[in-house]
Amino acid sequence: MYNVPLIKNLYPDPSNNLYGDLRICSRATETCGIACSAGYIAVRKKKKNNNNKKLKCTNDAVPWQVEGGGMIGVIRLENQVRNPPVIKLKSHTSPILDLSFNPCYSEILASCSEDMSIRIWEIRHEDENVNEVKDPLCILNGHKKKVNILSWNPMNYFILSSTSFDSSVNIWDIENEKKAFEINMPKKLSSLQWDIGGNLLSGTCQNKQIHIIDPRKQEICNSFLIHDGGKSTKCIWIDGFGGEDKCILTTGFSKNNMRELKLWSLKNTTSPLTTITLDNAASPLLPHYDESVGMIYLIGKGDGNCRYYQYSQGSHT
Question: Greater confidence, 64 or 162?
Fold first, then answer.
């Protein structure tokens, strides 16, 4: 862990350049439903209804949907205008549940869907005239139910993990287009993420526990109770430049349905290092972590604000 500078005053300044008039859907997913790389923003696209009425628009890039199938809309970062040109990725036969760009190759995108498949796409930045892509690089089949979460390994860029409604975690070898192995979980996961070293996977489960997975041993190496509430829980690793080794942040609900976040150390999981109770809103909190400055961002679906904390020198502010 490095001693990152402590930020005492932070004031967000919204940008005047927005991606406007993006047609969205209200389908709930376990993730935020948007993916971003160094060159693109990927969202799930929505078509018109059968009655040909116009759909409502928004100034945010958020999940989209296509009736009867799945379509991905990819927007170049420089096109911050109203009704920007969209590259359409068409191949899924059911609604898309998650998107994730490769952490090394900004033109490689993974998508998963209710059609029980995972598709790997390549969107070349130099091909400015491309408006539609129908053929993915590869199609990965192996889950028995709809696939809802994807996570790339941050150290091995050809390793992808996925989880499904069949309560399993699959590790994929993208280079050889095959499934490396499968790990069965007690129940369906609501989040899945690699640590920064690419050695361990963490996943929060419907049984109110978090499971730490060791892919090399192909087994669950640790499990413990994180939140008493029965609603969806999420987790992120607080590691890297501004974090600490084997430190995890979880969000969930208390017995009284109060939203809360907890900071855990895998060295001692009997009790959390820190617990913060927030409010009684109903939507799960989605955590995001910027390891360069130790900033933790919390957003909730339907919330009109974004909470932020800083992790520094083994404490939060």
Answer: 162
